[in-house]
Amino acid sequence: MFTKSVCATLVATSLVLVPAKEARADEAAALIGGAILGGIIINEVNKNKARQRQQQQQQQQQQTRARTSTRSSGISAAQREQNRNVQSALNYFGYNVGSVDGSIGRKTRAGISNYQSDMGYAIDGRLDDTERSFLLNSHQRSLASAHVAPYNQILASQGQQGLLRTYRNEQLGIPTPQVQQPQVQQATAPAPTQDTVPARANTGALPDFTFGAQARSANEHCNEINVLTAANGGLSSGGNVSDAEFALNEQFCLARTQAMAESSRIEATIPNMSGPQIEAQCKGLTQAMTPHMAGIDSKSPSQVIADGSSFLRNSGRPMDQLVSGGKVCLGIGYRTDDAEMAMASGVLLASAGQLGYGEIVSHHLREGFGAAKGQGNVAGDWMRLALNAAQSGATVLGQTPDRIAVLSAALTGVPAQTGTAALPVFPTVPSGD
């Protein structure tokens, strides 16, 4: 019995121990399986991370290529055009940003910062929508109103930046003083009777000086013309030229304003030269052209142009540079009220083939700016030269169809020989009758 009992106990014990071993083997297999499965999962996770990193790198490379492409080939055409408009406006108002290429670089940022400083904006070299809108609108406004009082006087005395500050002040509610048209009151004096004799004034105490002749001022002339234009409600039109002489004066003042704007745009692209240095160069232009303008009040335009053209060709200077220099000096002549400089620049430009600038020479001869006044015949010849060039497509200084129509209509209304229309003309009697 004891032996059976022992055997039974051993068998039972073995039955108990065997499942335990099997259980530990299953657990070991499960652990090994879990480790393998975990390794697979971790490996897949790592692969996914690697794929994500690769995708991110590819996206970054694509974005970098896109940014590089944008910098090299462009920003959108609309954005580049807006940038050009910003650069043109900055140059016009005296914030020199160099060439107008639509690319906002270091020089343009500096110009924007100067503009922001003058206008009281936060200075960061980047335009927000408000700053950009005011700049561009002011540029367009100046082109339309710079020749009208009182803005023409502000432009003449303070320059383009003074005009911009005036627009800024108006935006802030600060009114711009208006120029009042002088009113002439005609007093009607009572007619003297036989019983009353007008008393003779005592003139012994009045000063008596001998005054030298003063050169006419184109600046003052255009101020007066612009006041009258404003009083008349606007410029004369081609179909409504009631006063030919006044219409020509209006067109002269328009051309003068255009010349100053054109000069400022070109001047902004001149490197390494200050304003006084450029002005000194223009005084040299006046001296160089003066001998070739001798007798301009009596010579035909073709004679003057032939002489000037020969001089320019023999100067050894590239013709395109001479033309640009003439445009710069024409505007500086008007800005500094130097009629001789403006006249010489107009002759230079016409001699260089820019025949549309004959309009400038015509106005100067007609009104006596840098020349003797009243050269009606010669002035008309220069104007016809300019109009023929403009009608052939060689327009300058805003010679739009409207301007050409006014100039043409006014030219036909001006007497051919100014100053001789009042001379008497009598028929001659044949000799022998």
From TrEMBL:
Residues 51-82 are annotated as: Disordered. It comes from Falsiruegeria mediterranea M17. The keyword Signal applies. It holds the Pfam family PG_binding_1. This is Peptidoglycan binding-like domain-containing protein. SUPFAM superfamilies: PGBD-like (SSF47090). Residues 81-129 form the Peptidoglycan binding-like domain. Residues 53-73 have a biased composition (Low complexity). Coiled coil: none annotated. The keyword Signal applies. Residues 1-25 form the signal peptide. Keywords: Signal.
